[in-house]
């Protein structure tokens, strides 16, 4: 086996492929010292390697620290989060950077230099300074794909978007939006217009690149006589606006509104958020059959066939009623019941399709539930013994527990066959033997204290933790050990 490995590893092409595959989708944070010590290894990744395999080598810090890095070491960085002052020259940002986030501080200044054309993802953050923003948007990198403005209404001069841009994250009123020069036939789904007047509505009709609107009370009169144009597929209402006579177009895909505005007729709706309490009983046919994601505050009994079978995500903020069998859609993947305090779940009340389950206040029993074999993420108030029944066949789990664990006899997890576990406990807890199953291989612990032998099973080969463990409590089977501190 060793001879075969050596033969393969001597082949530079195969070694190159293995290196890229192992580091695929990785994010590595670096500073000056790390770059000086590890340049020879980071330099093995070409610019093309990093793009094709989503390998991100990120520097995060002040501009002065970035400029203090020599050019040879700087060239391996392709992802930068930078805090800059007014006198920063953008020519200093090296070619080869693909992702750039700039945060401005200090006094207003006109800006100097130009960003490299290698940048494909640009994020701009400012407080009161917009002068430098105007300088940057006057000549954007020609290969830009995603452009994000964290602040609203900051565009105050002509901004010509390259034809390569597919994602524009910006929100503003039309007197700011009018400065955007957009290639023909472009629609940016996350470009958001504050619809607050008749004038802004008329501008929206003429500018078809807008994919999202936020409806203010000032635009309600015109919307009662005219529908939103079809290029708008994402609609938010300001909190508190209720308009029972307002008919939105069938083309809306995502809708965030207040109870009282009609939505049942929207045949293509996929995502629905109802901000106020839903005050009447939900009945079959009220929710569009196309719906995939639903979030609402509702606390009345639920009946069969109320939810469309297409639903995959359900967030119920105030629901605290008995949950009857087969009420939830059988393809549901994400379920969040923030206020559910019933004593138990009935058999077949939780669909086996669930991958994410959040129960912040539930302290009852899962004894009647069938195993949730597809579960990947579980958020619960306390680690009650019956949790083990849900996890009978789960191999990999991200588990968050709200209350302190302090049972000297261990936890119910010992009765599972989990192999990879990330355990996060909201309050610092001391764990004892019989806390983990003998099948565990990968273990990540947050807010966990270990003060005795045999807590970590000898099957464990990878251990990640944020508390100080004495080495004598870590089994020799652990080959990869990583300690970190909460920030």
Automatic annotation (TrEMBL):
InterPro entries: FNIP (IPR008615), LRR_dom_sf (IPR032675), STK_FNIP-Repeat (IPR051251). SUPFAM superfamilies: RNI-like. It holds the Pfam family FNIP. Keywords: Repeat. Signal peptide: none annotated. PANTHER family: FNIP REPEAT-CONTAINING PROTEIN. This is FNIP repeat-containing protein. It comes from Polysphondylium violaceum. The lineage of its organism: Eukaryota, Amoebozoa, Evosea, Eumycetozoa, Dictyostelia.
């Amino acid at each position: 086996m060793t001879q075969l490995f050596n033969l393969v590893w001597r082949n530079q092409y195969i070694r190159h492929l293995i290196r890229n595959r192992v580091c695929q989708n990785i994010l590595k944070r670096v500073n000056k010292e790390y770059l000086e010590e590890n340049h020879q290894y980071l330099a093995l990744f070409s610019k093309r390697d990093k793009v094709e395999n989503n390998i991100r080598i990120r520097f995060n810090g002040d501009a002065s620290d970035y400029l203090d890095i020599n050019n040879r070491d700087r060239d391996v960085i392709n992802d930068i989060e930078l805090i800059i002052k007014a006198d920063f020259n953008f020519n200093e940002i090296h070619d080869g950077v693909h992702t750039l986030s700039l945060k401005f501080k200090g006094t207003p200044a006109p800006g100097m230099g130009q960003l490299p054309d290698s940048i494909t993802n640009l994020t701009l953050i400012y407080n009161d300074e917009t002068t430098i923003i105007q300088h940057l948007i006057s000549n954007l990198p020609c290969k830009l794909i995603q452009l994000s403005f964290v602040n609203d209404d900051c565009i105050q001069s002509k901004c010509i978007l390259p034809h390569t841009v597919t994602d524009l994250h910006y929100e503003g009123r039309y007197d700011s939006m009018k400065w955007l020069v957009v290639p023909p036939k472009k629609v940016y789904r996350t470009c958001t217009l504050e619809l607050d007047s008749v004038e802004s509505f008329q501008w929206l009709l003429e500018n078809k690149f807008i994919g999202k609107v936020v409806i203010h009370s000032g635009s309600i009169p015109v919307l009662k006589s005219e529908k939103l144009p079809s290029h708008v597929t994402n609609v938010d209402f300001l909190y508190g606006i209720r308009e029972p006579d307002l008919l939105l177009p069938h083309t809306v895909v995502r809708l965030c509104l207040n109870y009282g505005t009609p939505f049942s007729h929207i045949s293509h709706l996929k995502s629905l958020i109802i901000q106020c309490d839903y005050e009447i009983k939900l009945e079959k046919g009220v929710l569009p059959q196309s719906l995939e994601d639903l979030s609402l505050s509702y606390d009345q009994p639920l009946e069969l066939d109320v939810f469309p079978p297409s639903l995959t995500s359900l967030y119920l903020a105030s629901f605290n009623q008995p949950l009857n069998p087969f009420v939830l859609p059988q393809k549901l993947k994400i379920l969040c019941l923030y206020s559910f305090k019933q004593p138990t779940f009935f058999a077949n009340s939780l669909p086996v399709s669930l991958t994410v389950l959040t129960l912040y206040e539930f302290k009852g029993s899962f004894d009647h539930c069938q195993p949730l074999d597809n579960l990947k993420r579980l958020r619960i108030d306390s680690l009650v013994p019956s949790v083990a029944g849900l996890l009978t066949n789960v191999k990999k789990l991200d588990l968050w527990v709200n209350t302190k664990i302090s049972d000297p006899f261990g936890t119910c997890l010992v009765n599972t066959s989990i192999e990879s576990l990330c355990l996060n406990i909201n309050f610092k807890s001391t764990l004892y033997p019989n806390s983990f199953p003998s099948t565990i291989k990968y273990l990540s612990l947050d807010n966990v204290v270990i003060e005795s032998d045999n807590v970590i099973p000898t099957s464990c080969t990878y251990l990640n933790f944020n508390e100080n463990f004495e080495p004598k409590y870590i089994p020799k089977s652990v080959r990869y050990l990583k300690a970190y501190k909460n920030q």
